[in-house]
Specification:
The chain is an all-alpha fold. It has a domain of 69 residues. The chain has four helices and no strands. Helix 1 packs antiparallel against helix 3, helix 1 packs parallel to helix 4 and helix 2 runs antiparallel to helix 4. The longest helix is centred in the last third of the chain and has 45 residues.
Length: 155
């Protein structure tokens, strides 16, 4: 009876880690950069530019968020499978293959979920950078100012 509870607990812990940590890719909801209105540009026009450029940037990063989430989940699932195999091998040496597989799957799921969370954070960072780049390009093309950039001098 204890063996059955232990297997279920390890499997549940692995599944929980997979669900909680496997899908930690966040989609940018706005820019993380400052853009200022162009010289002599009314603020209402700037707000319209901002809204249009936010929509443009969201469309520019598109659907890679699903691919990033799938990749993170695959990382966690793969680690759980490797953990189960390793646990079964170790458990078979002691005559407890089932218990070893359950514990291995649970530990693999936890560590795989942690790895997937790190991978999800990296994907989120790249998505934010791509969003910001598209947003700044759009705002600059509409005549707004991006602090820290220098306009070339006419020669």
């Amino acid at each position: 009876m204890n063996l059955r509870r232990l297997r279920f607990g390890a499997a549940a812990a692995g599944a929980a880690a997979l669900l909680v940590l496997g899908g930690c890719v966040t989609v940018p909801t706005g820019p993380a950069v400052m853009v200022l209105p162009g010289q002599y540009k009314p603020f209402d026009v700037f707000r319209i530019d901002d809204l249009d450029c936010r929509n443009y940037a969201s469309a520019a990063i598109g659907a890679p968020t699903q691919a990033a989430t799938d990749s993170a989940a695959a990382t966690a699932l793969g680690a759980a499978a490797i953990g189960a195999a390793a646990g079964a091998l170790i458990g078979s040496a002691t005559g407890q293959a089932g218990q070893g597989a359950a514990i291995g799957a649970g530990m693999g799921g936890v560590f795989g979920g942690t790895a997937a969370a790190g991978q999800g954070a990296a994907s989120s960072y790249q998505l934010q950078r791509r969003y910001d780049a598209a947003y700044m390009q759009c705002m600059y093309a509409r005549g707004n100012q991006i602090p820290g950039t220098v306009a070339p001098r006419p020669q």
